[in-house]
Amino acid sequence: MASQKATRIALFSLATPPMRAFHLTWMAFFVCFFAWFACAPLMPVIKGEFGLSLAQVANINIAAVAITILVRLIVGPLCDRYGPRKTYTGLLLLGAIPVLGVAASQSYESFLFFRLGIGAVGASFVITQYHTSVMFAPRVVGTANAAAAGWGNAGGGAAQALMPLLLGAVLMLGVSESLGWRVALLVPGVLMLVMAVLYWRYTQDCPEGNYSDLRAAGIAIEGGKKGGWDSFKAASTNYRVWLLFVTYGACFGIEIFIHNIAAVYYVDHFGLSLKSAGLAAGSFGLLALFARALGGWMSDKLALRGNLNSRVTLLFMLMIGEGVGLLWFAKVDSVTWAVIAMLVFGLFTHMACGATYALVPFIDSKALGGVAGIIGAGGNVGAVAAGFLMKGTGDIRQTLIILSALVVISALCAIAVRFTRAAAEPNMAAA
């Protein structure tokens, strides 16, 4: 069967399966990330209610991203086996349980437990990248992947900015602060349930249809040719997968870490109010609205003029920029310059994320789910490692300085992904 992958992004159209999948997958991703990071901007309030120490806050941040490592490794192969439609719908439905449950927390231990469960929804990223990868042709897949991921990622920034405002609106109704943050946290859980219904109803697995129907008709499936464990095994033997695992840990891992600590950092270090800290922290996440897509778009454009190694060189340069910018952010003492520095290094960070997943479809198209899952898990490994580093240093600023050096070092893994000319050219011809 001839491929029906979209060769262009008709942004304002829902007429074709690729474009319906594109819009619904970034929306689902947005809702999941909103839910994932909804607790972060409220942590100064929650920290006070439960009397949390910095070490306990670090444990909560680690829990928020730790389980995602395992779930990301699982959902990639699940997409190969069952298709992204069923996998995403299941994740949205199951993920809503801890999102709603965290509002019922009465102690540090119960909050930590539900925060661990919420981390599973972070695996939504892998499904989004998988779905756009099987829907769009090589010439635009980098842009499609990065745009969908970037707009979805903006859910994290939206949560930083909107959750304090939502809490404020609830408090204006006369609700106590102790109950108010719990009521506010019900909102993302309900949104996930709504999104599950829409995803099941209006998407399909690939341009030709759903995997179950295609397999029943004896039609081969490109992205899901290897299912489940076979997909994971094939991906895990590819050294480029593990190099990108490291680089993604150094860009997306840093992004998650900043989401989790930014509000507390601005409150504790610069004395900002909860609302002001939320808006400052939220600006970092909202960069994803365009910056991640910019990274993917630049990768596509450079590849059309050169080959796959042009994508690799771009990723290397973006990682260097991220590391230098992060050091700047850690060193400044003025809140104004801190926000400016955060936006600069955030631009490089988001673009590096987009450039990483612009490479993913070309690593091993026959084990796409395994590739996407392992590399995606790398982002969370990076965030967990950063969380343990902060717990060890006991100081956010010192942690940021160390992380900036590690990011620059990880850029060497990016440049090591380089392809031979024979491997690079056929992929470009396919565009």
Query: Approximately how much beta-strand content do the residues carry?
Result: under 5%
Q: Which term fits the overall shape?
A: globular
Strand tally is 0
Radius of gyration: 20 Å
Low-confidence runs (pLDDT<50, min 5 residues)? Answer: none
Q: How would you state the average pLDDT, rounded?
A: 91
Q: Total number of helical segments?
A: 19
Order of H and E elements: HHHHHHHHHHHHHHHHHHH
Give the biggest sheet: none
End-to-end separation in angstroms reads 18 Å
Helix content: over 70%
Report on the architecture of this protein:
The chain is mostly helical and 431 residues long. Helices cover 78% and strands 0% of the residues. It contains 19 helices and no strands. Helix 3 (54-82) packs antiparallel against helix 4 and helix 7 packs antiparallel against helix 16 (335-359). The radius of gyration is 20 Å and the shape is globular. The protein starts with 16 loop residues before the first helix and ends with a helix.
Q: Which SSEs are present, and which pair or pack?
A:
Elements: H1 17-37, H2 43-50, H3 54-82, H4 84-101, H5 108-118, H6 124-135, H7 138-172, H8 177-184, H9 186-202, H10 211-216, H11 228-236, H12 239-270, H13 274-286, H14 291-305, H15 308-331, H16 335-359, H17 368-393, H18 396-415, H19 421-429
Helix pairs in contact: 1-4, 1-6, 1-7, 1-9, 3-4, 3-5, 3-6, 3-11, 3-17, 4-5, 4-6, 4-9, 6-7, 6-17, 7-8, 7-13, 7-14, 7-16, 11-17, 12-13, 12-16, 12-17, 12-18, 13-16, 14-15, 14-16, 15-16, 15-18, 17-18
